[in-house]
Amino acid sequence: MKIKRKASMVVLSTALMLGGSIALAPTASAVGSSACQFNSPDVNFKVSTSGARFRTGPGKRYRAIGTLYRGDSFRYFCRTRGFENSWSYGKILKRTTTGIHPGTRGWVYSKYLD
Question: Which of 12, 22, 36, 55 is the most exposed place for a label (fewest CB within 10 A)?
């Protein structure tokens, strides 16, 4: 393991010394309610479409936890901005059609909630 790390550092150092640049993009990691701009009393919604991705953060760049289908239950806590074009944060209330466990927290595009 130490050899791989040293080799990586040598390659990186050499590239930087020769005037190269390395693009270090941040990874999209899980985001909880810290991304919320509008809080709400807990409200239960049903998913209004089939194929809505349930994600670790508010946006397509975040990893999908699973897929939600029409009728799946979602408890809404907050959202990123006004309801149009926003993402809603909450938790799954009962096992979803695709097997996401109750209590799993994540994000869904708000227009997919009724």
Answer: 22
